[in-house]
Predict the 3D structure of the following.
Amino acid sequence: MFIGEPARWQTSSMQPKKQKNKRMKIIFATLLLVNSVYSYAQSNLRSKTIVLRRLLEQKHYQPVNWNDTASQLLYTKWLEKLDDEKLFFTQKEIAVLDGFKNKLDEEILGNGWLFFGQSTMLYKQRLLKTDSIIKVLTQKPFDFSKPDNLTWPFTSFAANEAELVQRWQKYLKWQVLNQIAKKQSDSNGVSSKLPTNFPQLETAIRSSLRTKESAYLKNILGNTPNQFVAELEEKYLNTIAWCYDPHTNYMSSKKKDAFDAATSATEFSSGLDLEENDDGDIAIDYLQPGSSAWRSGQLHKGDVIQSVNVGGKKKI
């Protein structure tokens, strides 16, 4: 990486030699720091994985025999976690990851550690690429003059970039039509005719979809690279725990505190999970049994949150 740098600095007659050397040392030290932080994060996750495996081997009623079969199970579930709808990866990236399909058992047992870093790096690249695809596709009105066929959900990854773009185009067009049909049925009942304001509805919904999908991708990517990796590390550990049985979960100390708060019967805990629904509204996704929200009997799954009052003041 440094092969070309000294020659570039030597051609600059404006900098004293001492300043050049100092600059080289600062850049080199910065690169060492970045690499050290990344290596530490990878090493830390690897250590957590080993501790988790040992704990489950001791405490779980049916410990997993980590072999090729278990490796394939972890591999398949992890890809589901990253791209269950098959709208991010193409077969090009999957071909790279497939090389780890029968090797994850070795990593879990402490031999090597490459898959998580490789999969998350490709995942981030695909999320950024997908965001670009959506922005380009939603810049102008969709063409509904020709019939399209869409089989949902997708059962395989797109063969290449062109197929993925076409997949997204069909998916977004379907979403536009679906929302227009819903608006029409809510106001006038079911009709086989296009609404007279179809162009205006298409424009508004297409813009809303662009905002919604971009917000979804931004939420996955997080506010910082560290947040993105931290969220995926916890998800990966939880996927390993799932391999023992679907009801075994991994919790970080932060999630453990949140779980304790959610199950608390005190007035300071609401005990509900919120999620954005298909219409873009914030709705109740889950009520924790025994929590304040659950015991009130006034809240139900699917209810849309209109506002939240805290201390008599409207916060949302």
